[in-house]
Write a structure and sequence with these properties.
Radius of gyration: 20 Å
Strand content: under 5%
Pfam families: Phage_Gp15 (PF06854)
Helix content: 40-55%
InterPro entries: Phage_A500_Gp15
Oligomer: single chain
Protein name: Bacteriophage Gp15 protein
Structural class: mainly alpha
């Protein structure tokens, strides 16, 4: 998720309290996503070489948590849409969808992905915002199909509204009232 309150996009990750410059081009992180998925599918066997992600020095990963910043950069979380139900199916396959991604970006944004350099987070934001009129959006819609039939149109719109609402954040007064309630009845 892009943080538009910041003037720049991240270009480093932190490991062990130190910042390490990373390559931010979408091609590199697309390659990482493909290789990571393949590595996980293979049962995480063998060495997973990620040196190409770094511009200069490569951090020493001493514990599993040290990898968190890589995953947060590679797969940034969006808080919307959210749902209690997810088909669990992948809807985007970088290794197979290149033609459709390329044509969608050209059609929707006039961006030739072959001739452009783009930060990974910009790429993801544009990918997430592809208009429904692109073939890539239609393909992802087909892949997301669950077979579930909903006859009540109002139920469809209630689910969409719920999925796209930002997460509710309690006010300090609400948190205090809840704490008092829990202390009294808990």
């Amino acid at each position: 998720m892009l943080d538009l309150t910041q003037k720049s996009l991240p270009d480093a990750i932190t490991v062990g309290g130190r910042d390490f410059l990373i390559n931010t081009d979408f091609r590199i992180w697309m390659k990482f996503a493909i290789e990571y998925k393949s590595w996980v599918t293979s049962g995480m066997k063998g060495v997973f070489d990620i040196r190409y992600l770094f511009k200069t020095s490569v951090p020493v990963f001493e514990k599993v948590e040290d990898y968190n910043s890589i995953f947060l950069f590679a797969f940034p979380r969006n808080v919307v849409p959210h749902s209690s139900k997810d088909s669990g199916n992948d809807v985007l396959f970088y290794e197979y969808d290149g033609d459709y991604i390329y044509s969608a970006f050209l059609q929707a944004y006039g961006i030739d992905l072959i001739d452009t350099d783009m930060h990974w987070h910009k790429f993801l934001a544009l990918m997430n915002g592809l208009p429904d009129c692109t073939r890539m959006s239609a393909i992802m819609g087909h892949r997301a199909y669950t077979g579930e039939k909903i006859k009540d149109e109002a139920a469809i719109y209630r689910r969409l509204k719920e999925a796209w609402m930002p997460p509710y954040e309690e006010t300090e007064e609400e948190k205090q009232a809840e704490d008092e309630f829990n202390a009294y009845f808990g």
